[in-house]
Amino acid sequence: MSEKLLRGMILVFLFPWIVAAAEPKGRMEIVWIDVDGGAATLIVTPERESILIDTGWPGFDDRDPKRIERAVREVCKLDHIDHLVTTHWHRDHFGGVEGLAKRVRIDHYWDRGLPDLDSPDHDAKNFPDGPGRNDRLGIAYRKASEGKRKTLKAGDRLPLKGDVRAIVLASGGETITVERRRGSELKSTAGEANPRCSEDVPDQPVDRSDNARSVVLLFELGDFTFLDCGDLTWNVEKKLVCPVDLIGRVDLYQVTHHGLDQSNNPLLIKTIEPTVAVMNNGPRKGGSASTVATLRSIPSIKMFCQLHKNVLTSDSDNVSPELIVNKDAKGGGYARASVEPDGSSFSVQFEGGSPRSFGSK
Ligand SMILES: [Zn+2]
User: How far is the CA of 1 from the centre of ligand 1 (A)?
Assistant: First the structure.
């Protein structure tokens, strides 16, 4: 029995009225909404504050905004989104804003910055993939976020109430400084030289796309940590762990970039040593065989699930069928993690399934 639990039991025994009067603290919830190879991850803190990271694809009769709305209202019983974070300017990450903003009130918008439409040449290098002046989705995003938008830089924190902390480890291709990371107060093994960096993992060609500029967020509640790197790619992933580990160990890992092999540098995954990995792939997007192999080789991983079976690779390059969230290719089923209010443990379950529990590190 843990000391914390024992102390709690003694407290209940000696002072039952105190415990009865205390408001039960909620759990932290994380929901991976199936957006068919895009990204939409909803986090609800014990204070019932909500953070949505990315909004899935546009089109398909607003399929993804409707699925996000269901997660907000029916799964998490909320009537609005406090914070929307857009990791980068690709359609599978910000395309759903237009439809979502019509359905659900969004109070704050956070992103890595938008190109200045008055000096497009100046911004061409920093915003290789727009959104440009005539991009319909960009126009919709600017309109929905007007007066409510702020830029996130590496080292920033989301202004959350309560005990959950969310720190930006990278944004716009820049990573947090060692000094800032050490001073971030987040529980972790981060900020030290990483012996794994001597392993021979070659770089990939420089990625000039917006993926390499993704906003990377690390959430912490007590001992529990959750990492969402958006679509960050190989060489910048390495910058996050070499020569100094700027992340630390992680309990729950959203497999980066839908599991594509331009991402998921083994140096990063071996360093963070996740316990659970959730891959937000689609039937024909993400879930590369080499990423699956990398994740399978990590001894710390006790559960690794995919939102879909990748139909383009063989059965043996997918997780076993019971770890595929959507058995049916038409999808729409979510995976969900539920974290104890003190962060000491968490459970993961699929829609309609039973939970599996894990201790936090
Ligand atoms: Zn993506």
Answer: 43
